């Protein structure tokens, strides 16, 4: 496992006043799934320990942290059979033990059991404090449905009363963070709603890689661009831990990264190697940037009603009927000028 660091925040290009807060140091672990549970936990624990030794106060782990990615194929049994309890299952237990052992906040992700007739579970991100307590929980909202990522056969979308919770937990220097998951990162609405809720950084636990139906199409550059762009448009730091390695139908492409509100990649992992990333986040850059480019203050929500209309599932990418262009105005009728007043008109005199 390699270490990659960015321990000095780059200059805030739009800063006009001295910051009052110290940078927040965070870590991220990129790993490859291992069918040996002990070896998998050992790799993750090593990454957490190394981030903590470098001074990270929180360490973020990829989507479905302890699991093989399940949704690359249709389920052959009840999908929820492999789900786990939120507070007594192996993922929370691992995160709590690692957080306590290393004195850091640990973020992880799990396939949460949710008893219902459809047999589906929830894709849930958690944040655990150094004392081993659950201090944050967010369920994935948007569920992918395409080849190699048949998540709608395993997960239902989260439906909490507050779908975009922002956590301000003691011990993280007042940082305000959101914890959406993977497919959520492609939706500009998600980043915007978190930003409106006061988030300063978003953590997207991720499991993304090849497209089985399009093996020559590398989506990694697009994936990175859309996340970084959503960060720029909303004044957010983006923390994106992905897995790497071939798990059969999908080969995951790693490339985990941390970006800032100016769109700069502070630190990034390779595509094909386990890594721990550690970076300092100058959280006041959010205000610096949004003061200069006030995207939130100059919105026009009165024009956004179409965003909340139901999706037309039969034609999900169909454009609405175009608005007809207005008819051009008729040319004015010529004014008749009699011989009696022609001389006055030509002289500029009106009667």
TrEMBL record:
Record keywords, A-Z: Hydrolase
Q: Which Pfam families match?
A: CN_hydrolase
Entries under SUPFAM superfamilies matching the protein: Carbon-nitrogen hydrolase
Segments forming domain CN hydrolase: 25-289
Q: Which InterPro entries match?
A: Aliph_Amidase/BUP, C-N_Hydrolase, C-N_Hydrolase_sf
Give residue spans, biased composition: Low complexity: 309-322
Q: Name one GO molecular function term.
A: hydrolase activity
Q: Which domain of life is it from?
A: Bacteria
Protein name stated in the entry: Nitrilase-related carbon-nitrogen hydrolase
């Amino acid at each position: 496992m390699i270490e990659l660091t960015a321990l000095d925040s780059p200059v805030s290009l739009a800063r006009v006043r001295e910051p009052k807060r110290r940078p927040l140091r965070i870590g991220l672990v990129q790993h490859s799934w291992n069918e040996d549970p002990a070896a998998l936990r050992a790799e993750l624990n090593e990454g957490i320990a190394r981030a903590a030794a470098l001074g990270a106060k929180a360490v973020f782990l990829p989507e479905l942290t302890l699991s093989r990615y399940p949704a690359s194929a249709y389920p052959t049994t009840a999908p929820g059979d492999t789900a786990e309890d939120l507070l007594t299952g192996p993922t929370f237990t691992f995160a709590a033990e690692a957080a306590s052992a290393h004195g850091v906040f640990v973020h992880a992700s799990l396939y949460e059991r949710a008893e219902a007739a459809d047999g589906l579970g929830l894709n849930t991100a958690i944040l655990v404090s150094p004392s081993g307590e659950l201090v944050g929980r967010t369920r994935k909202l948007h569920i992918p449905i395409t080849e190699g990522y048949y998540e709608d056969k395993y997960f239902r979308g989260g439906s909490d009363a507050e779908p975009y919770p922002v956590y301000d937990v003691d011990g993280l220097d007042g940082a305000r963070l959101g914890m959406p998951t993977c497919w959520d990162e492609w939706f500009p609405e998600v980043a915007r709603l978190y930003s409106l809720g006061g988030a300063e950084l978003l953590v997207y636990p991720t499991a993304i890689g090849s497209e089985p139906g399009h093996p020559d199409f590398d989506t990694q550059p697009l994936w990175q661009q859309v996340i970084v762009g959503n960060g720029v448009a909303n004044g957010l730091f983006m923390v994106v831990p992905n897995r790497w390695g071939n798990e059969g139908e999908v080969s995951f492409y790693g490339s985990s990264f941390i970006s800032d509100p100016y769109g700069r990649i502070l630190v990034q992992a390779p595509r094909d190697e386990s890594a721990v990333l550690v970076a300092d986040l100058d959280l006041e850059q959010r205000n610096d940037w949004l003061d200069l480019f006030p995207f939130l203050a100059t919105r026009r929500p009165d024009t956004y009603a179409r965003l909340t209309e139901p999706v037309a599932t039969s034609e999900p990418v169909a454009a609405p009927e175009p608005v007809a262009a207005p008819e051009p105005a008729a040319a004015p009728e010529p004014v008749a000028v009699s011989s009696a007043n022609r001389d006055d008109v030509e002289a500029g005199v009106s009667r």
